[in-house]
Specification:
about 80% helix, 8 helices, mainly alpha
Amino acid sequence: ASSVATGGIFNGLADITTFAQYLYKDFTFVGIALAGVGLYGLWKKEKTLFSFFMVYVFLLLFYLFYAGFPVYNNFQLGTLERFFIIPYQTFAVLLGLGLSYLLQTYTMLFLNKKKQLNTVYTWLVPVFWGILILLPVATFKRNYTVLSFLKTDRTIEQYADDILRSIPNGAVFGAYQDTTAGAMNYAFFIQK
């Protein structure tokens, strides 16, 4: 892995831009807005937790910037994507906090108006559950159509076969890179 010191500031900025593009693509505007509402809710109710999340999100983004992985092809993009896992989990938590804050806010707004409270619950609860269910379903549908071809992709198997064919019988083999080790583990444990 290269760092900004060796990879340059442009690689770091490209990684942040790539992360923002994928965050928008995967969480959509609704998800990002709900994460923002979650941060706002924390700011209103839990200042310490809000401060933690702000520092945590900043450090996650700073790491992406500092790592500065060059992204010139799909393989390098795949290498970078593994660093999105923790920030995505963080945004998912903030999204849930945003949904919770919206539900609590609407409930409190209509709490003193008993007649209107029933009206609110008749449309708010289905909307809440609709967002909670439809957003992941829509994301799954979009991702499935893009990634479904991978079930017939045999790149790793072919790579492992090429390596195994190049090794003489009885040789001791050691893999030190994640791609090679992953392919060999797949061949050993899955293909046997």
